[in-house]
Fold this protein.
Amino acid sequence: MATLLMKFSGPLQSWGSSSKFETRHTEKYPTKSGVIGLIAGSMGLRRNDQSITSLNQINLAIRIDQPGNIIHDYHIASKYKANGEFDRNYVTNRYYIEDAIFLVGIESDDLNEINDIHSALKKPYFQPFLGRRANVITADFVQGIFEEPLMQVLREYPWQASKWFKKSRKDMTHLEIIADAPLLKNESRTIFMRDSVESFSQDHRKYNFRTVAQSTIPNPDIPGAHEHDVFQSFGKEE
């Protein structure tokens, strides 16, 4: 078992799972389709490459170290007729997450696969971005490869929030976890998300549903957090 950690901490991020037409929403945390798209692009895979779907088998979990805020922006898009004459303008509403930090981990039994992904992220074929092309990654984007299982790494890895956030949230004893459902045992809540990739093709994008588990784990940087951890059995490996 091998785990690869990434840190999503750009100034703006956007992770849509159900956006349509002129309104582009964002989830409050990265989607699996977004993470797979980032990995696939870094590996040089094209949108219509069917091998992308194999990446759905990689286990994914996200630790929300700094939740951030949802902000709204709008853009004007112009439409022109076939003869080149102006038709009308569209107002498009777009949503972003600002000042958020996520610790994103993937896990696989295939060490070679994890090594290949790690190499691609360090030297990407296509520029990676955090949901939209304008949302840049940071220098500490790739955190490294670990031998331990993903949930163990997320329980032990240092809190990645900004200094100003840590100073203002010294009472943040637990961090939220969003993960593929099999990674969390006896969790308190599951939801369905339509972000399992079937095709990124611009002619026919297609996604399936997957089961996502939501829970919390003790903040590894706050002493005593484990003493009051009501979810202490979650995520333990069998």
